[in-house]
Specification:
10-stranded antiparallel β-sheet, alpha+beta, 3 helices
């Protein structure tokens, strides 16, 4: 059951469903305190609200990162951009075989509060893109919805 909740929350993050950009002044103090307790002296690039969760974008050791906190300020997961070559081989092989004609555009490593690791791969063909989730061994978990990319995704 916990894995299903983790996967569901990760896919919600991936899809950006109901994501709403926030000004720092709109972010509850408990969320900011929790973030800066874990990542002190970190420059925040942006805040979003996704459902009841809050996402903060920042750079950690020069790596594009984001952290998710629940409404009570509890840390849920860290997502960090990785090179496509850092995806498990099984994941890249699955993408090449299953999504012929699509290009692997981006990749991320997601680590939840208990240390469980998932991988996310973004595939693109023309202006269409979607994300695919894999476990730490590169086994397929789930594919996100197909979306249409505008000039810039973020």
């Amino acid at each position: 059951m916990k894995q299903i909740i983790l996967i569901a929350s990760s896919l919600l993050i991936i899809s950006g469903a109901n994501a709403q950009d926030l000004k720092e002044s709109e972010v509850p103090e408990i969320i900011k305190q929790s973030f800066f307790k874990i990542y002190p002296n970190t420059k925040v690039d942006g805040w979003e609200k996704e459902g009841t969760d809050y996402e903060v974008e920042f750079h950690l050791n020069k790596v594009e990162s984001s952290a998710i906190f629940d409404a009570n300020g509890r840390f849920k997961e860290l997502e960090q951009e990785i090179k496509i070559t850092e995806l498990p081989i099984a994941a890249t092989e699955y993408c090449a075989k299953t999504y012929v004609g699509y290009k692997l555009e981006e990749a991320a490593k997601i680590t939840n509060v208990s240390g469980k690791i998932l991988f996310e791969a973004e595939l693109k063909k023309g202006k269409e893109y979607f994300d695919v989730m894999f476990d730490d061994k590169g086994n397929f978990i789930e594919r996100g919805d197909v979306e249409t990319k505008k000039e810039a995704k973020d």
